[in-house]
Amino acid sequence: MEALDLIASMKPTEELVAAAADADVTAPLPDGTSLLLAALTNTDLGARYASAQWLLDRGCPLGAPNAEGLTELHVLLGQVKHDIPAARAIAEQLIAIGADVNAVSPVSGLVFCDVLWMKHTDEDLEPLYALWFDQPGVLDLETPADNGRTPLGIARALPYRASILERMERYLAETT
User: Fold this and answer.
1) What is residue 105's three-state secondary structure?
2) Which of 18, 34, 137, 145 has the fewest CB atoms found within 10 Å of its own CB?
3) Can you give 1-39 as a three-state secondary structure string?
């Protein structure tokens, strides 16, 4: 039988459900990551969200970041294709169980960088922007990844991110 993490990352949700019938989906994987992180790497849009939701419904916790320092939020939002309402719903649940909106990966930087790179308009991304800006505490927009990129720098470099850039600059002015 295939390992559950491979099934979660590559197969339809129905196959994960069948394979996990007698498994403890809350147990960390050998590398310390979670089955949830594996499911979020699934490139099939429907399977990604359905498998993640199924795991969340069964109490699957967050795990350690992967070898590249990517957390569940990084992986969810760093995918190429997105269903914005579904991504927001999963992101909101991840945050509710302790995912850090200010988590930094050396490779991709702050999680919000992944949101800014999405191939959607600022208007389309507003539900995700609102989720970030509604979080308690201070939102980090300036910690760089190893490549030096920050959310603020990305927004400044992308002309189609003008409205979120304005919001970010206003937020920074109000919080500093």
Assistant:
1) strand
2) 137
3) CCCHHHHHHHCCHHHHHHHCCCCCCCCCCCCCCCHHHHH
Q: State the Cα–Cα distance between residues 21 and 52, nearest whole angstrom.
A: 16
Please write the tens of the pLDDT for every residue from 76-116: 999 999 999 999 999 999 999 999 999 999 989 999 999 99
Contacts of 88 (CB under 8 A, 6+ apart): 127, 128, 131
Q: Is the pTM of this model over 0.90?
A: yes
> Hunting for tokens 């945050």 — which residue is that?
95
| pLDDT surpassing 80 at residue 2 | no
**Residue 116: count of CB within 10 angstroms of its CB:** 26
Phi and psi, residue 149, nearest 5°? -75, 140
Instruction: Dump pLDDT digits (tens) for 12-28.
Output: 999 999 999 999 999 99
> Token match 């957390």: residue?
71
Q: What is the pLDDT of residues 84-95, one digit of tens each?
A: 999 999 999 999
Amino acid identity of residue 13, one-letter, is T
Type of residue found at 87: A
